[in-house]
Amino acid sequence: MNLTLYFKKFFNSSQSSGIILILCVLASLLIANSSAGEGFQSFLDKNVGTHLFHLEYPVSIWINDGLMAIFFLLVGLEIKREMVEGELSSFKNASLPIFAAVGGMLVPALIYTFFNAGTEYANGWGIPMATDIAFSLAIVSMLGKRIPNSIKIFLAALAIVDDLGAILVIAIFYTDQIHWIYLLLSAGVTLLLFLLNFFKVTKLIFYIIPGLFLWYFLHHSGIHATIAGVVLAFSIPTNVSNVTISPLEKLEHKLHLPVNFLIMPIFALTNTNIAFNSEMVQGVTSTLGLGIIGGLVAGKLLGINLFSFIAIKMKLSSLPQNSSWTQMIGVGLLAGIGFTMSIFIALLSFKDQIPIQDEAKFAILIASFLSAVLGFTVLRMSAKKDPNLIEN
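Request: output the structure for the sequence above.
Response:
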């Protein structure tokens, strides 16, 4: 095979980005637990930027708040396109991810609280509420056409709602101070973006520039700045026509390669940087570890499927097209990949308590690994059992 054609096939494959992401996770863990670990962490902690306009942050912040805002922009574009002309265009389909996400946040928090109410770990109830959208979508992408496209869209929508919920939880319960002036400026920029859409402005540059200001204001408000990507995505115009390519579709097409093969691997490489120690292992069987693992693995599965079942039985929602309850179970398990957002909440929950933070990180890593393996296995088996459900 011609080398150029090989690379083209590789980069067009939905499984390739997931494979690269997993390799980056393994590489990051190896680096963190080698002699290079301390130097790598020092690099991530190094301040980069300028004092001008207060834009000097550690490399890790630029990655998690900056580059990942672009990832959220791409996912937001995909969700909006599906809401306008695809799988989420009906209320019944669009409402299911919302009900599922609510259940997927409430039940894990209750399970964690059951184990830790009244203990020194009680403040960590928000840890198992989060779903790591980047890793969960990477795992599901590895299944390719083995599962219907509607399941991938459902997981993406669920994960976005879940992330917005986690951001609200952080802002209300885990943030020391909200800077309201910056929040009001963010609201003003959001209004401007949707006015541009209303007046049918189609040039992308007129959305991108205000989008950068929106990121800046949100970041300084104390709220996780990645939400700027979702807001920007929902303001960009699209259409239901197959004749003309909309601004949304143009931007979506341009972002796929850099997000899947640059931004997500960098994210994985820098966020799996966990150095193991003996104290971590001891924490797995503590109420902290049981609450986190039980919340993420069992809580997400139960919460997402229970609330989805109730919404469908009440005829408020319907199953994703061509999908089955077995695949919904697989999605519920994949949503238990809490990882980076869960670790972030753990750090906020137990400030200056390094041993507890380390125990929480290890429990999150175990729970995310179990959720990824179980979710992938269930979805792969569901395709074998019911091949007629898969879209061509």
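The beta strands are 47-50, 55-58.
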